[in-house]
Amino acid sequence: MYSFQALQILVFLIPGFISSSLLNALIVRESKKGDTERIIEALIFSMLIYLVYSTFDHKNPIALVQTSDTLTYSYETTSFLSLLVIAIFLPLVFGVLITNDLHMKVARKLRISTRTSRSSVWFDVFCDQKKHVIIDFENGRRLYGWPMYYSDTPEQPYVFIHRPCWIQDDKFVDTGLLGMLITPAQKIEAIEFLDE
User: Fold this and answer.
1) Would you say domain 121-193 falls under CATH 2.30.30.100?
2) Which residues lie below 8 Å from residue 114, measured CB to CB, with a gap of 6+?
3) Which residues is 65 bridged to in the sheet?
């Protein structure tokens, strides 16, 4: 009986851990979670998964069946597939909401919060301002281009500029490069976002 209960707990937790791992792969988070936080997140996901599952299907994915004198486990394959689909679908929805800051936009509009769902202002600006930039360096040089890739935090300010041009005497000088990776060693002083 104890082994069956342990198996039921595993069947309950595994979809939550799948969802939690998938969400971690999809979104940028401020810090790595500890074991306790991961378990709590998996439990929350498991509750949501089984809430959705129970509205569509009332079968237990695993059951203990007694036939004459023996007890056997009965597995419901379609239930496992349904749980897997829900475990994959939920973090995809949460990933879209968090990455695009949709739920926090609603909260800001309703004046519930002024925060965003992203990890830093640096990340907020690059996500929201899809525009060409001019990067001003401490040494006085200026670089124009499209910020195709960027780091999550300003502590490690990496920016990949697509089709970069140097600005010299208010003229654009093409570098002839497909792209240029700006690293923290190049000491960015400011980034200007251009209104096209």
Assistant:
1) yes
2) 108
3) 72
Q: How far apart are CA 96 and CA 120, in angstroms?
A: 18
Average pLDDT for the chain: 86
Can you spell out the DSSP letters for 13-69?
A: HHHHHHHHHHHHHHS--SS---HHHHHHHHHHHHHHHHHHHHHH----SEEEEEETT
Mind listing the pLDDT tens digit for each residue in 92-142? 999 999 888 899 999 999 999 998 888 788 888 998 889 999 999 999 999
1-18 b/e with 16+ CB inside 10 Å = b?
Answer: eeeeeeeeeebbebbbbb
Q: Which residues contact 136 (CB under 8 A, 6 or more apart)?
A: 142, 188, 189, 190, 191, 192
Q: What's the whole-model pTM score? A: 0.73
Residue 30 above 80 pLDDT?
no
Taking the domains of the chain in order of start, what are their residue ranges? Answer: 2-108, 121-193
pLDDT computed for residue 4 by the predictor: 62
